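[job 0412] stage=fold_complex status=start
inputs:
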Amino acid sequence: MTLTRAKRFAISSGALVVATALALTGCASTSAPEKPSAGPVTLTFWHSAEGATAETLNTIVEDFNDAHKGKITVKATYQGKYDDTVAKLSASVQAGDLPDLVQINDVNTAFMIDSGLIDPAQTLIKDAKVKYDFDALVPAVSSYYSVDGSLSSMPFQVSQPALFVRNDVLAATATTPKTFPTTVSGLAKWAEKAKAATGKAGLTFHINPWWFEELTAGAGIEYCTPDNGRGSKPAKAFTIADDTQVKQWTELQKLFTDGAALNVGTDFSAGVNALAAGQAGAFFSSSGALGTVTTAMTTDWSVLPFPVEGKKGGVAPGGNSVFALKDSLKTDTERVAAAKFLAYLGSDKIQEQSFAATGFLPTTAPALKESKSNANTRQTALLNQLANTSDSIAAAGCLSGALQAVRGELTPAMEKIVRGDDVKSTLTAVQKSASGLVADYNERAGQ
Amino acid sequence: MNRLGRCLTPVYLTIVVLLIAFPILYAYVGAFRPAAALSGGLQGLLPTSFTLHNFGRALSRAPLFLQLGNSAIVTVAQTVLQLLTSVFAAYALTFGKLRFAKIIFGVFLVSMMIPGETTIIANYLTIRSIGLYDTLVAVFLPFGASAVTIFLLRQSFASFPAEIHEAAVLDGVGPMTFLWKFLLPLSRPTIAAAVITSAIAAWNGYLWPLLITDSPDKRTVQAGISQMADSVGPDIGALLAGSTLVSIPMIILVIIGQSALTRGLTEGASK
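[job 0412] stage=fold_complex status=done
writing structure:
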C-alpha cells in the first residue's frame, strides 16, 4: 500500500511538470508570430528604450501603424539594455532569425557596421524611392552617423553632453551664463572659486568614459587614428595619453583632491542628486537627462555648453540610431516598408515630437529650427550647442568596434585618477592596452 | 569584559540590522514618495506626503502583474523540476551502487564551474530549434537539472545512517518507499534549503528570460523591472515602486522558510 502511494506521488508529480510544460507550449505555439511574404508587412523592431523614453517610442510606433493600417505593422519589442540587445542579436545570427530593424546605441555603431548584417539606411531609402532629405540633417549628427559620407543607420534619439549649473552658485561666483568659462582650465578655476565661495564642491560628474571621450573631442583631438575610424581604413590605435589629455585630467584630478569636485562614483543619478541637493554647483550631464534633472531640481538652474577648445574641437553627439538588417528584409515590399519606417523616424515631425517629450535632440535642421521657436531657455541652450557643433573629424567621435572594450579599461583608470594616482602613467597604461584591444578587434572583424 | 560584551552586542546588532534593512526601507518608503522628493538626498524620505503615482507609472510601462504570474509559474516549475531530477540523481549516486559513482559526481561538480553565460548561446540555439522560443517553458527548461542541488542533496544523503538503510532493505522496503518514506522526511532541512536557493535563482533570472522571449506577456518580472527607468533619465520613483511590488513574494517565501534555510545550508558543516 505504502509502496503504491509513494510511486503514485512520484509519477503524479512528474506528470504534473510534463503536463504543465505541454500546456504552456501548446498555448504559446498558437500565438507564434508569422511573417507573410505578400500582402500586409509586419516588421519586427527591437529596441532598448526604457522609462519615459519607451512611452514616447511606443506612441511614435503606434502613430506609424495607424497611418499605414492594413499595409505595414511595426512590432516594437524591448530587448533589455543595449548590450543585452547586442548579445541577443549575436545569438540570433546563429539561429538565423533576426529582427528587421534594431535600435543600437552610439558605442556599438561600429560593431553593427562591421558585422556585415546591415542594409545601410541611406542606400535602402534611396533604392526604395522613399522621400527623405539627407542634406537637411544637422551636420554634426550626419557626420557622427556616417561612414565614407553615407548614413549606415537612421539617427533617432541623439544626445549631447552639456553643463548643468545651479543659478545660486553662478551668483555666488559672480558669473553669468554669458561670462561662464568655456575651457577645461577655465572650468577648473571656476570650480575652485565656487568651493571658496560656497564651501561645497564646484563640479561633479559620474565616473564614466563618455566624459573622457567628450573632453578629447572638445579639445579637437582625434580619439582614434587614423581619421577617428571614419575614413576608408579602420582605426588602428587610440589616443588616450596625449599632452592635452594629461593636462585636462591633471587639472580635474586637482579639483577632486582639493574637494572642489565631488566624486559620486559611477552612478549617474548620484550626480543628479548631488546637484539637486546643492552638494555640487555644476554637473556634466547628457541632454537626454533634461527631464529628469528638471523634476529633481527645486532651485533655478541653467544649461551651459560643454567645454570646447579650438576650431577643431566639438561636442560629439551620442544617443542611438536604428539599423535595418538585410537578411530579414527579403522581399522588395519589406525593404520599402523598412525604408518608410526609417524615414519616418528621422522625419522633422517625429524629431520635434521626440525632443519635446524626452530631451533627445532633433536630428534635422528644420526640426531644430521649429523646436527652437517653442523652446524654453534650457532647451534653447542645448539646441544652440548642437547647431554650433563643428562637423570636424575630431567632433565626430571615434568609430571603432573596440570602443566598448576600451571603455572597460578607462573606467577603473578614471577612478584611480580621481583618487590621486599619477595621471600620465595611468593613461599611458590604458593607451597601451587599448592598442592591443583594437588590434584584437580588427583581427576578429577581418580588417 | 563579559558585561561590556553583553552591552555592546545589542548596539552592534542594531547597527548591522540598520545597514542591511536600510536599502529595503528606502525602496519601500521611496516608492510612495513624489518624484521630486527622491532626488534631494535622504531628507526626501521624510514622510511629508504620499503618492501612488509611482505605482501607476511602473504598471503602465510593463504588464507587471501578468509578469509576476509568469515569474511564479517559472519559479514553481523550475524548482519542482530541479528537485525531482536532483533527488533521483543524488539517490542514485549515494545508494545506487553505481560503478563510477564518484566519476559521475565529479562530472556534475565540474559543470558547476562552467559559468552560465558560456552555455547561453548553445541553449538559445537548442530552444529555438525545438520551437520553444518565446514560451514560458523555454525560460525554465534548461534549468531543469542543477549540479548545485544534486551536490547539496548528495551530501545530505551520504550522511544518512547506513544501518537504517540496511535494516530497511532487509525488511523488504523497496527503493522508492525508502526514498519517500525514510530519506526525504529526514532530509527536510536540506530539501527546504534547496527549494529556497533554486526558487530565488529562478525568480531572479534576467538575461536568459530576456533572451529567449520576445513578447512582454511571456516575460518574467525581472525583465519588466529593467524597463522601468533608463540610465540617463532614471525615474527612481517608478523603479522603486516596481521593485517593491516584485520583492514582496520572495520576502514572504524567505520569512516562511528562513529557519529551514539556515539549518540546510549549515548541514554537513560539522561532519
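[job 0412] summary: The two ends of chain B are 33 Å apart (CA to CA).
[job 0412] exit 0
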